[in-house]
Amino acid sequence: MGSLTAENNIVLSADDKDTTLADRNTHATRVAGLGSDPEKKALFASVTKRIDYTPKFGTELHGIKLSQLTEQQSEELAALIAERGAVFFRDQDDLDYKEHVKLGKRWGPLHVHPLVPHTQDNPEVIVLDSRLSPPSRFNTNDSWHSDVSFEPAPASFSILKFEEIPEAGGDTIWSNGYQLYDDLSQPIKTLLEGLTATHSSDIFKILTQSSGRKTFGKLNDSVHPVIRTNPVIRTNPVTGWKSVYVNPVFTREINDLNPIESKWILDYLADLVSKKLQYQIRFHWKKNSVAIWDNRSTYHTGVPDFRPYHRRGVRVTVSGEKPFYDPASGTQAKAWEVTAKAIVAKQEATEKANVEKANVAAQDTASATTA
Ligand SMILES: [Fe+2]
C-alpha cells in the first residue's frame, strides 16, 4: 500500500502492489433500478421539494437523507438517475464513508481506481483534492468524460460528495448523451450504430509524466494502460434509451474507420458535448452537497476556475454491466413525446379552468351590478 499524508489521512498510491483487474473491477450482476415503480412513490413520499434543472435533464431533491434510504427508495432513485441523468442533494452531512460505500453497494460492485488516491481503510472511496492535482492542460477534471470508460466494467453511477468547497467557483457541468444521440441526423446515426471505439487509461500516464503530480500510484505496465472496446452508441439498460458513448478524455479512436475519419467524428461529437448549451446542466456545490449521475448516458467536467481556493471531494464509483448496443432500443426523444403531451394537456386544463373561473367571477360581478 502507498504512503499516507498525515493531514488528509489518505492513501496516495492505490496500486503499489499488483492489483489485478478482478480485484478492482467486476461487472454488476443485476441492473439497479430496473423494474422499480415508474412513479417512484416510495422515494417521492420523502421528497419535500423537486427542482428540475431542464425539462429532460437534472433534478435536485430536497427532504432526502441518502444515509436513510430504504431498499425500495434506493431502487427508485437508481431509476430516476438513469432517467434524469444526474440527481443532486444538499446537506448530506451524515453520509460518512461507511454510508457512502453502503449506498453504492446497493447498486453494484464498487470500482477500486487503479491510480487515483483513496481514503484510508476505504479503497472504494477515492479522494479528489485540488491540493494533490496541480493545474494541467491534461487535467481530467476540466475535460469532458464519463468515469472510467476504459474499464471492462465501466461505471454505471458515480456518487460524489464535497467535504470542502472553494469560496468561489468549482462548479461541475453535465451534458446529456441521450439528447446528443437524438439530435444527430439519421445518416450519422446509421453510421455510428454498430461501430465500436477504443477507450484507454493512458491519459493517467501522460498526466503523471507531464505534470509531476503525486496523485497517482505505480504505473504498472501489466495493468496500464487499460484498453477497452465499447459500442459507440450505447443502450442504457434501465431506461432502454440510446446515447452516444465516446468521450475526449478516454476514447482514442473509432474502430474500422480510418484515422482521419475517426478523428473528425470524435472531434465533432466532443464539440456537441461541450458547446450545445441545451444539453447541459450546471451544479454549484455547497459543503456536503452530493451529486449522483449515470455515466452510461452523460458526460461531465469540472470547471477549473476556483484556484487559489481549494476543494476536496470523495467519490464512490459503481461498476456497471458490460456496455451493449441494442438496435431495438428506444430513445429519450420518443419517451419525451408522451411526457410533453401530458404537460401540454395539464397546461391546457389549467388555462381552461382559469378562463372558466374568470367567466364565473365576471358573471358574479355583472349580477351584483344589475341587482
Ligand atoms: Fe469524472
From TrEMBL:
> Mind telling me which GO cellular component terms the entry cites?
cytoplasm
One of the Pfam families matching this protein, by short name? TauD
Q: What's an example of a GO molecular-function annotation for this chain?
A: 2-oxoglutarate-dependent dioxygenase activity
User: Which SUPFAM superfamilies does this entry report, sorted A to Z?
Assistant: Clavaminate synthase-like
Q: Where is the TauD/TfdA-like domain?
A: 52-317
Annotated protein name in UniProt? TauD/TfdA-like domain-containing protein
Task: Tell me which family the UniProt entry assigns to this protein.
Answer: Belongs to the TfdA dioxygenase family.
- Signal peptide per UniProt: none
Species this protein is from: Linnemannia hyalina
Could you list this entry's UniProt keywords, alphabetically sorted.
Dioxygenase, Iron, Metal-binding, Oxidoreductase
Which InterPro entries does the annotation name?
AtsK-like (IPR051323), TauD-like_sf (IPR042098), TauD/TfdA-like (IPR003819)
The answer to keyword Oxidoreductase applying to this record is: yes
